[in-house]
Design brief:
By secondary structure, the protein is mainly α. The chain is 59% helix and 6% strand. It contains nine helices and three strands, in the order H-H-H-E-H-H-E-E-H-H-H-H. It has a three-stranded antiparallel β-sheet with strand order 1-3-2.
């Protein structure tokens, strides 16, 4: 079997820590390296499109809101784990770029609804699709049957720590913004600095 950089990493650390479990170290380090590669790919794509991580996260959130791609500023703030007043500057910047528009709420004229524009949707998909392509390219190292097995093994591993609310979708934020903000998963786009 061909060695990779993780094998060399393990060899080094086994000399320093003789009771290091090479299997656990190998699996966990490889998972971390795959995630690091995908994160670096996303960061490069965002930079190439002139997007900050928090901007992409907002576009992604709105893009996942179904028909109309709308949300309240409070829902967007919950997704970002910010106060509603703290999200205003971020929304201003996205509106200035033409990625969102603010509309008066039909239910309450004092409130606004944030809507993803066609330009914002294009900016989101222009980075979303290549990210998915890179993920598929990495996974293509496995045969289709192996991919199914790997997915099932990861599902079993997740059951060790999985809980309701661990991973939210844009639709699950509405209605319980505070809970969503507290339990937002690291596996959704990073909203940027808090």
């Amino acid at each position: 079997m061909r060695q990779d950089s993780v094998d060399r990493h393990i060899e080094h650390w086994q000399r320093e820590i003789p009771d290091l479990d090479p299997l656990v170290e190998g699996v966990v380090t490889r998972m971390q390296m795959v995630l690091r590669h995908l994160k670096q790919t996303r960061q490069a794509l965002l930079a190439a499109h002139g997007l900050e991580e928090y901007e992409y996260a907002t576009l992604h959130f709105l893009g996942g809101r179904g028909s109309g791609h709308r949300a309240t500023p409070s829902d967007i703030a919950a997704w970002h784990k910010m106060s509603p007043s703290g999200i205003t500057g971020r929304l201003d910047a996205l509106e200035k770029r033409g990625f969102i528009r603010r509309l008066p709420s039909p239910a309450d004229r004092r409130k606004v609804i944030v809507e993803l524009t066609e330009e914002g949707r294009r900016a989101w998909l222009d980075t979303f699709d290549p990210q998915g392509n890179e993920e598929a390219k990495v996974l293509a190292a496995l045969e289709p049957g192996e991919q199914e097995q790997f997915n099932e093994m990861l599902r079993r591993m997740m059951q060790v720590f999985d809980r309701p609310g661990l991973l939210h979708t844009p639709d699950s934020v509405a209605g319980d913004a505070a809970t969503a903000a507290r339990s937002r998963s690291r596996f959704t786009p990073d909203p940027g600095p808090e």
